[in-house]
């Protein structure tokens, strides 16, 4: 097994130098802030989607201090559309903690980084490797897929026993006597191989530097590995979006910080206090086409209802009246953005 373990690094390091990715925007500055931001954005999100968000985000918040000083509304607005908004809230919390508790300097050890909000073991290891030259192993989704195929692991990676096995393999697969630079190359090679060659569907096995010793390739089991999550019926929930329009402005309500779309601006899901907002209906409501939105653990059926009203523009801080164009500039979830673009932008 030891020869097979060492084979991974021996093959991937030269492969990455000739065939890996070298032009990703966060590779232009391997400081802790850029690595941290890119790693968090890449959690459950494809590289092609992340690149423009990373570029906009780092342009607006170029360093940890600017992010810490920003309002959470500005951070969420810059993140809007990328999904999994708890990641953005954790970025903001972590930035403020680093400024307050670490005097603006990232801790360098994986163990210390792992204590910060939103930074798991693999993300912490990536920061430690790329920014500080530490010897640590990553185990993101790409690496799990590579290891499942290469070692023939026929168990679901979400199980704790399987994760324990994979973490051991990840640590043992590190270059034996690698320099900090070599560890960076190896770590990037794992990311690149999983993102460009050992992909989930239709992997390019003929281009893989590990194929001659890959169990899945040798046994013709590439399509079966990694083992998928056991399927269960995806529950579906329903809600009604109350879309109030007054003088071509739409009413948006700020959601609670916790829960789905926490801290984002959304159409009210229940009729707000009519007396408090002083809404007077101008006509009967109009049902707009239904919209479906999928989350990780359930599907949401949205029934939008448009109501033209006469209203007092002075509302509490929990509500705002915005033109459709201005509403798109706020931190809004994807379904709200779709509804505005489909029905209120000409």
UniProtKB/TrEMBL annotation:
Organism equals Nitrosomonas marina
| A GO MF term | 4 iron, 4 sulfur cluster binding
Q: Report any one BP term from Gene Ontology.
A: mismatch repair
EC number assigned by the record: 3.2.2.31
Q: Superkingdom of the source?
A: Bacteria
> What SUPFAM superfamilies does the record point to?
DNA-glycosylase, Nudix
Q: Which UniProt keywords apply?
A: 4Fe-4S, DNA damage, DNA repair, Glycosidase, Hydrolase, Iron, Iron-sulfur, Metal-binding
Report whether DNA repair shows up as a keyword of the record: yes
Q: Enumerate the catalysed reactions.
A: Hydrolyzes free adenine bases from 7,8-dihydro-8-oxoguanine:adenine mismatched double-stranded DNA, leaving an apurinic site
The protein in question is named Adenine DNA glycosylase
Instruction: Describe the task this protein carries out.
Output: Adenine glycosylase active on G-A mispairs. MutY also corrects error-prone DNA synthesis past GO lesions which are due to the oxidatively damaged form of guanine: 7,8-dihydro-8-oxoguanine (8-oxo-dGTP).
**The keyword DNA-binding belongs to this UniProt entry's keyword annotation:** no
Gene3D superfamilies in the record: Helix-hairpin-Helix base-excision DNA repair enzymes (C-terminal) (1.10.1670.10), Hypothetical protein, domain 2 (1.10.340.30), Nucleoside Triphosphate Pyrophosphohydrolase (3.90.79.10)
Family the UniProt entry places it in: Belongs to the Nth/MutY family.
Q: Which InterPro entries match?
A: A/G_AdeGlyc_MutY (IPR005760), DNA_glycosylase (IPR011257), Endonuclease-III-like_CS2 (IPR004036), Endouclease-III_FeS-bd_BS (IPR004035), HhH-GPD_domain (IPR003265), HhH_base_excis_C (IPR023170), HhH_motif (IPR000445), MIG/MutY (IPR044298)
Q: Which NCBIfam families match?
A: mutY
């Amino acid at each position: 097994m030891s020869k097979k373990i060492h084979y991974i690094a021996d093959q991937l390091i030269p492969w990455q130098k000739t065939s890996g990715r070298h032009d990703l925007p966060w590779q232009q500055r391997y400081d802790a802030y850029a690595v941290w931001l890119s790693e968090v954005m890449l959690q459950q999100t494809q590289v092609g989607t992340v690149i423009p968000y990373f570029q906009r985000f780092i342009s607006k918040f170029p360093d940890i201090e600017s992010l810490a000083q920003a309002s959470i509304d500005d951070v969420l607005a810059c993140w809007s559309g990328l999904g999994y908004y708890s990641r953005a809230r954790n970025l903001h919390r972590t930035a403020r903690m680093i400024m307050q508790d670490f005097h603006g300097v990232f801790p360098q050890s994986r163990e210390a980084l792992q204590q910060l909000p939103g930074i798991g073991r693999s993300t912490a290891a990536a920061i430690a490797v790329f920014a500080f030259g530490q010897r640590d192993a990553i185990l993101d989704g790409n690496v799990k897929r590579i290891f499942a195929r290469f070692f023939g692991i026929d168990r679901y990676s979400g199980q704790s026993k399987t994760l324990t096995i994979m973490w051991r393999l990840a640590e043992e697969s590190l270059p034996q006597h690698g320099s900090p630079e070599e560890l960076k190359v190896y770590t990037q090679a794992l990311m690149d191989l999983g993102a460009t060659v050992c992909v989930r569907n239709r992997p390019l096995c003929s281009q893989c530097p590990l194929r001659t010793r890959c169990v899945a390739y040798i046994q013709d089991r590439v399509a079966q590995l990694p083992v998928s999550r056991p399927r269960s019926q995806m529950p579906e929930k329903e809600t009604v979006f109350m879309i109030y329009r007054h003088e071509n402005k739409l009413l948006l309500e700020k959601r609670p910080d916790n829960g789905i779309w926490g801290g984002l601006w959304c159409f009210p899901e229940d009729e707000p206090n009519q007396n408090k907002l002083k809404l007077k209906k101008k006509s009967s409501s109009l049902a707009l086409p239904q919209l479906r939105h999928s989350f990780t653990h359930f599907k949401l059926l949205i029934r939008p209802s448009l109501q033209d009203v006469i209203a007092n523009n002075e509302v509490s801080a929990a509500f705002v009246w915005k033109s459709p164009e201005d509403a798109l500039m706020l931190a809004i979830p994807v379904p709200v953005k779709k509804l505005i673009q489909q029905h209120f932008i000409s």
